Each structure stands twice: as C-alpha cells, then as structure tokens.
Automatic annotation (TrEMBL):
InterPro entries with a match to the protein in the record: EXOC6/Sec15 (IPR007225), EXOC6/Sec15_C (IPR046361), EXOC6/Sec15_C_dom1 (IPR042045), EXOC6_Sec15_N (IPR048359), EXOC6PINT-1/Sec15/Tip20_C_dom2 (IPR042044)
Function: Component of the exocyst complex involved in the docking of exocytic vesicles with fusion sites on the plasma membrane.
Keywords assigned by UniProt, alphabetized: Exocytosis, Transport
Protein's name according to its UniProt entry: Exocyst complex component
Every Exocyst complex component EXOC6/Sec15 N-terminal domain range: 78-247
Entry-linked Pfam families: EXOC6_Sec15_N, Sec15_C
UniProt source species: Astyanax mexicanus
Keyword Ribonucleoprotein: no
One GO process term, biological-process aspect: intracellular protein transport
Stated family: Belongs to the SEC15 family.
Residue span, Exocyst complex subunit EXOC6/Sec15 C-terminal domain: 440-798
Lineage: superkingdom: Eukaryota
Amino acid sequence: MERGGSLSPPVGCPPLTAPPAAFSQHTANMAESETLETVTEHERILQEIESTDTACVGPTLRSVYDDQPNAHKRFMEKLDARIRNHDREIEKMCNFHHQGFVDAITELLKVRADAEKLMGQVTDTNRRLQDAGREVTAQTEEVIRCRIQQRNMATTVEKLQLCIPVLEMYSKLKEQLESKRYYAALKTMEQLENIYIPRVSQYRFCQIMAETLPKLREEIKEISMSDLKDFLESIRKHSDKIGETAMRQAQQHRTFISAVQKQASLGCAKPLYSLNGRTTLQHNGLVGEDAADEEEGDDEVLTAQDLVDFSPVYRCLHIYTVLGDRETFENYYRKQRKKQARLVLQPQSNMHETVEGYRKYFNQIVGFFVVEDHILHATQGLVTRAFTDELWNMALSKIIAVLRTHSSYCNDPDLVLELKNLIVIFADTLQGYGFSVNRLFDLLFEIRDQYNETLLKKWALVFREIFEEDNYSPIPVETEEEYKSVISRFPFHDAEIEKQPFPKKLPMSQSVPQIYIQVKEFIYASLKFSESLHRSSTEIDDMLRKSTNLLLTRTLSGCLQNLIKKPHIGLTELVQIIINTTHLEQACKYLEDFITNITNVSPETVHTSRLYGLSTFKDARHAAEGEIYTKLNQKIDEFIQLADYEWNMGESDGRASGYLMDLINFLRSTFQVFTHLPNNNNDHAAMSGKVAQTACMSACKHLATSLMQMLLDTELKQISMGAIQQFNLDVIQCELFASSEPVPGFQGDTLQLAFIDLRQLLDLFMVWDWSTYLADYGQPTSKYLRVNPSTALALLEKVNRGMKDTSKKNNIFSQFRKNDRDKQKLIETVVKQLRSLVNGMSQHS
C-alpha cells in the first residue's frame, strides 16, 4: 500500500490531512485516556479494512462515523499510526534486498545480449528448416491423400461387391415385372428380402429398396387381380361358344350310342368302337370325342383352352399363394363366379319365342360349368367338388323355374319338342361332367304334359278344319283305285259294299279317314317327345295311350260336341255324324294295334292302358241323337208359331189347319232320312231303328205338349166350340200320322199314345160328357182317365166365357131362354165340382 494514497475518505467527508503537532500531542494525551473498549473497536476496524476488498470498505467506515461524535478523529489517528508502522517495515525490507536486486539486474542485462543473438540464430535455423520441409510436407500430404484414396477404393470395391448382386437382383425384378412374370418376380423379391438386402441394409438405397418391395407386391396383387377380372370377363364372353362345343360333342356321342344300339339290335357282326372314360369328355372335361362318324373323328375339337386362356387364373392363384393370401383369392373367385352364375341363369324375356333363345341359354350354362369343372381338376383347392355341387344345385333350381315359366308361354308343339331335345342334350352333357341331372328329366315329364297340351290344341284346330271342310255326305268312289286309296287311309271293310259295282258310295264322309290319319299323326308326334327320355317301352306305351286317350276323350270329343251344337248343322248332317262316329269307334282297335306295333308292348300286359274311343264316340252319338231330338222339337215349335186359330169361330172349316199339314209333311220327309243310318249288321240296324223311333216319339210328344199348351195358354181368355172342333180336326191329323207308322218298329198304337191326353180332353168337350167324367173320376177304367181336373177346369172356363160372349152377340134376350139358362147352370155346376176336385187334389198333395 502506497503511503498517504491507499485510503480515501468516504464520499462527503473532508479529506484526511496530516494532523499538526499540537493536535497529535493532544491526541496522544487523549489516547491514553481512551477506554480499552474503543481501542479494541478501532483495531478491529483496521483489521477489517486491511483484509476486506476496497469495494466493501464503505460499510466499515460508516461504522466509524456512527460511534461517538469525535470517534472518527481518534480512528484517523489510529489509522495514521498504522500506516507509519507499515512504512517502516517496507523500508526495512527494501534495504535488506536492494543489493541482490541490483546484482540481478546487472546479470539480466548481460543475458539479454546473448538471448538476442540466440534468437537470431534460432530464427535463421527455423527459416532454413521451414524452407527445407515445405517440399517434404507437400509430398507427404500427397502420399497420405493417395493412401486414403487407395483405402477408400478398396472399401468401395468391397462394398460394391456386396451391393452389385442386390442391384442385379433388383434389375432382374424390374425386368420380370415388365415382362409380367409376376410369380418369378415374387420369388426374386423373396430372395432380395431374405438374402441380399440384409447384407447391405445400412445403405440408404437398400432401405428405399426394402420400402419399395411391399408396394411392388401390392402392385403385383392388383395387376394379377386385374388379369383375373379380365379372365372372368373372357370366360363370360366365351361360355356360349364353350357350351356350344360341349353340347355338340355330347350330341355326336349320343348319335354314336344310338348307332351302336341299333347295330346291336340288328345283330351286326361288324366290330364296334368302344369309349372309355367319361361319356363325352376326357378327364379334364374339355376334350370331346366324336365317334359317331369316322370321317368327323379327325376334325379338330375345340376345347376350353382353345377358347379361353386360363393362365391368368393359374398365375393369380400362385401369386396369392406366395403372398400368403390364397384364402382371400379363393373367396373372391368363388364370389365372382357365383355372381356370374346368377347372370348366366338370368334368361332373356323373349327366350320362349325361338329355339335359339333356349339354345343360347343352355350353351352359356354348359360353358360356365365346363370352365368350373376344368378349374376343379386343373387347380388344387381353388374350387372344390362341394362348391361346384352347391353352385349346380342353385343353378338347377333356377333353370327348372325358368324352363317352367318360359315353356308355359309356348304354344307351338314343334318348339316344345325342340326344347325337349335341347334339355336332353343339356342334361347328357352335364351328366358327363359328373353333375346330377335327375331333376331335369323329372322336369321333362312336366314339359311332356305341356307338350301334349299344345298337341291337343293344335289337333283341335286340325279337327275343326276337317269338320268345317266336310260335306257330311257318303264318300263317292268311281274306280277301284279310289276305293283302295280310301281303305289304305282308313280300315274299312264291308263285304256287301265290296260286291257293289262302281261307282258306289262308302257310308262315312270324308272327315272319317282324315280324322283317323290325324290321330295316327298325333301318336307319332307324341312318340317323338318320348324318345331319349331313358324310359322303358312299357312306360312309353303307357304315355302314348294316355295322350291318345286325352286326344279322343277331350279334344276330338269336344270338337264333335261343338260341331253337333252348331246351328248350321241340320238333321241330315247329324245323321251323317252318327254314321261317322260309328266307323271311328270301330277303328279304335286298329289304333291300339298301331301303338302296339310302335312300342312292341303286348296289349295283354297288365299295366297297359286301353283306348277310351268307344265311350268317346258313343257319347258323341248320344249327343248327336239328342241334338236331333232338339232340332226336331225346334222345327216343330217353328211350325206351331205359324198357327193362327180363330178362337171365336162359330164353326170349323171342316179340314185341318194348313200349318199342321205342313208340319206333318215335314216330319214324314225327315223320318225318311233315318233310313240311311248304318244297318249293315244287326247291332247297327237295332241302333238305327232305336234312334228313329226315339226321334219320332219325341217329336209326337213335343207336338202334343205344344198343342196342349196352346189350349191352356193363360193369355187365351175364351174359346168357342167351333174352335174346339177345328182343333179336334188338327189332332185327328196328328193321330192319323202316328197311326201311319212313319218309323217302323212301333208296336200297336204306341205312337198314338203321345196324343192320348189331348184326345180324351177334346172328346170330353166334344161329347159334353161331364156326368161320366165326374162319376168315373179316379177310377182305373174311366173313359177320361188322362184328363186332369185343373186342365178341364181351365178349358171349361175359357169355353164358358166364349159361350157367354157368343150368346150376347146373337140375341140380347138369349139369357132368358130356358135351354141357355140350363146349360149355364150345368156349366156352373161342373165348374164347382171341378174346383172341388182341384182343391181336394191340392190338399191331398
């Protein structure tokens, strides 16, 4: 510490100056009087100032001024004393070391010259050394750089030897992807991941490559799936052609089998070819065999592989298998094929209009299942037999439903027959691939019934046309050739007619041989459907007989019934219809023989059906007979409507009414027609006589009933006795007609009994024999046994009113005449008695 300058007073304090001597003396005197405590405090402060940093002296000095008022002065004195002590110690030390310091400075001055000289030498040496080592340094750095490059090159070569195979494999992968060799690309990727990339995984390009491989896998999956979709679309487009080829091969094979069976049945000794394996196809279900014709055996056979490239599905299957996602692929493939199956099974709305619509539908279905069968055998597990069976069962149900619906719209038997042939080929084709087709043959039996229905409708039109074109007159034959032509078409044999000279007439009309021929044509048409149904001859025979029975009992019978009911068919035509049905009935046994010759089934077989033609034609004859009776009655009604009686006439004309004579003449000429009924044997004679007798009796009864209704008509209020007489003359003519035997065969007066009710009623009024009637009423021997009291009462009231009206017109005073009054009383008495009889009958009933 420098003397007098190391300590400065605090800010705001006057500077410290050396105290004067008087003051120092005073201070010394005062110091002696200081207490021990003050001295100690100042000592402490001084020690603190000496040991404390100058920046922190302020608080210490402040404590000096904080004591007694004059404490700082005493402190300053203490401080000065301390300073003086230090100065003395410094001086002593400097005096002690001064000579050594001087000596050291002298030595340093000597050394400085040597050091400067040495410094120059070292600097020169360093310069020369730097100049000499600069070239060496440059060469050394070049050597180091070359050594580093050499080491780097060796390292690079070593690493490149590890990377080049990776890059080569990756390049190979790219080439495989570009050439669409996806399965090989997946194998390459597997080698990259497992072998090559792990060796150089520390490099960035390998990391990028490793990150790219999963993306490439997904890309391959997408590409292969796209190829699969294209494949599915391709087989959808080519299913029609595949199915057409398969069905054609099946048809050719069926033709061959038929030829083999035919040769076997003929006992041909020529060696026949035999087929092994599937019925129409080889083990893969795609190569057909055409053994039906040797010339066609060398033709190129198109297979599914020829029409569709199956490599996409194989490739996609392998890819998904390698990627461990085979199940996803299988599920997708099966799902898509199910969708395609539903599309294939969906028919066109107008499929039933042409056979081509059905053929295209079947071709698509066959093509679909041919592809599935190929996939089943060419791949392991992509589709299973259970899956294809499930798909086929679903398709079969849909096919049957579609065929039922669309075949029901078909009214053309030829189209139905072609449909049947298509179904048979369709079933045989798929059966060759192991699919169950029993339900299809069951469906054919349903379609057979529909085919028979269409045949029946077609033949109904044929029968109607034959009936419309028939002239309903016996067939005239002018020469032997014409006669043979007729009997060649219809089995007619009559010894009496054969003996007759030409020209002559056969009893039936032209429609009979035509109907017979058409029935045989129907049998042929029905037989066509039964072919290839894998049924026995007995079953075919039964089907033919049943369908023929339907033709006879429903179609032909219905046509005959409609023909008989037509208004333009007269009595002559009805008679000819009866003759025709008789001959058709006789021809039924020849139809049975015709069926037997076709099917080779003996008619004595237990389950053989019989033709119902006998009952059919009998029913037709009965209907014709009934129509004869009806038309006769209608004609009688027409004549009755011409009757114009003058019910108030005074006397009769003395002759029968003109309408009635015309009616009787008509009946006479009509009954002569019945002589043309067949009577070439006793049965026919009895039959014809019965028809004529029944018609005659029916006509007479209807005439009598109509005349009775005319008398009892409620609109007719009064009748004169002259009108009764005229009516009696008409009834007499009817009785004369009945007694003239218009139809032979009646016994006694059987025919006259038709008019017995009218005769007794008219006799009662003509004789006016009321007493006898009333007296004998109810007696079996009564003369007027057939006269009902109600009938007599109704007619008597009309006669009574007529008599009253006549009397009034003749004489106003006639009521006063005795005879008239007596007659009036008699009538009133008879009326009362008749009413009592009528009332008694009503109470009794």
